[in-house]
Amino acid sequence: MKIYGPYTRKDGRKHVVIIHDDGRRQTKSYPRLLMEQHLGRELTEDETIDHINNDFTDDRIENLQILSLADNSSKAMLGREAKMYQFSCPCCGKEAFKAFRQVKHNWNKNKSGPYCSRQCAGKATYVNPWETTTNKGK
Ligand SMILES: [Zn+2]
Question: Distance, CA 27 to ligand 1 centroid (Å)?
Answer without folding.
Answer: 48
